[in-house]
Design brief:
single chain; 310 residues; Diaminopimelate Epimerase, Chain A, domain 1; eight-stranded mixed beta barrel; 15 strands; binds pyrrole-2-carboxylate
Length: 310
């Protein structure tokens, strides 16, 4: 299986070029469901150690259903198939350019949750225009083991987020272990309380927002992913959900640009335009770098062929 690895603000993406199971026909959402239910062993084996690394997101290239799209992609982490992935889309654009499949300019990419657009600049900066994002609940209150009462917003940005602002724990790299444990507890409590999307979708990511040390930066975030790793980037879908909350709260005007940094200090430039259904259309700008081109091997005698299961 040939793959190309990149990182976006430190967050790895593995684009899979070939050697993948047949996901059949139908929409990308249907193909993503098949990947999640019928090929769990396969997709986890691509990302789990020793073949993969913590935090890594896989990007499975598929034929787009919509002919206007340059590519179709299904993202997944080591625990779940994702609706969308912002850092992965920045990594994908840089990888497709590396392969000579796209040139600088605007390109549409099809994902299970809809068509997104990438604008690849000559200097390698990529702006992702994401699917419409929205806040669905303000100030939901939950009781969390070890933290007490926690209040947060529920928002959609291509995945489902519970956003706690301000964070109960300072958002610093030295606190990553504590932040991870607290975010796992928040996600469990939110899901146990039945808090999630309008259609009953569970919370898959948790965000803690805190201040940055840099006056030019709007805020710093910590983002917990479904596989219990943290996002090294500021999380494109999480930043989209955050923009929806800022817009709904009247805290950011359309077109106004802010910088969001991750817990390790990686920046994204963010802005939005009003969406057709009352939400926002987010624009997320960042950079990615290709770091490896390799062939993955799955030896029949390898006791860790499927990866080390946590
Ligand atoms: O950038 O949207 C994102 C993302 C989701 C999970 C990891 N990164």
């Amino acid at each position: 299986m040939r793959v190309i690895d990149s990182h976006t603000g430190g967050m790895p993406t593995r684009v899979i070029l070939d050697g993948v199971p047949d996901l059949g026909t139908g929409t990308l959402a249907e193909q993503a469901r098949r990947l999640a239910t019928e090929h769990e062993r396969f997709y986890k084996s691509v990302l789990l150690e020793p073949r993969g690394q913590p935090g890594m997101v896989g990007a499975l290239l598929v034929k787009p259903v919509s002919p206007e799209c340059a590519a179709g992609v299904i993202y997944f982490d080591a625990d779940a198939v994702l609706g969308m992935c912002g850092h992965g889309t920045i990594g994908l654009a840089v990888t497709l350019a590396h392969l000579g499949r796209i040139k600088p300019g605007c390109h549409k990419i099809e994902t299970p949750v809809g068509v997104v657009e990438v604008d690849l600049k000559d200097d390698g900066t990529v702006t992702v225009t994401n699917v419409e994002s929205r806040r669905v609940c303000k100030d939901a209150t939950i009781e969390v083991d070890g933290l007490g009462t926690v209040t947060g917003d529920v928002a959609y940005g291509g995945n489902w987020f519970f956003i706690v602002d301000p964070s109960p724990i300072p958002v610093t790299a030295s606190n990553i272990r504590r932040l991870t444990d607290a975010a796992i507890a928040v996600r469990s409590a939110a899901n146990a309380a039945g808090i999630g999307g309008e259609g009953g979708e569970p919370i898959d990511h948790v965000i803690f927002q805190g201040p940055s040390d840099d006056a030019a930066v709007h805020s710093r975030n910590f983002v917990l992913c479904p596989d219990d790793t943290y996002d090294r980037s500021p999380c494109g879908t999480g930043s989209s959900a955050r923009l929806a909350c800022l817009a709904a709260g009247g805290r950011l005007e359309p077109g106004e640009e802010i910088i969001q940094e991750s817990v390790i200090g990686s920046p994204y430039h963010l802005s939005y335009q009003p969406g057709p259904n009352g939400g926002v259309i987010p624009a997320i700008s960042g950079r990615a770098y290709v770091i490896a081109e390799c062939t993955l091997r799955f030896g029949a005698l390898d006791p860790f062929r499927d990866g080390i299961k946590p």
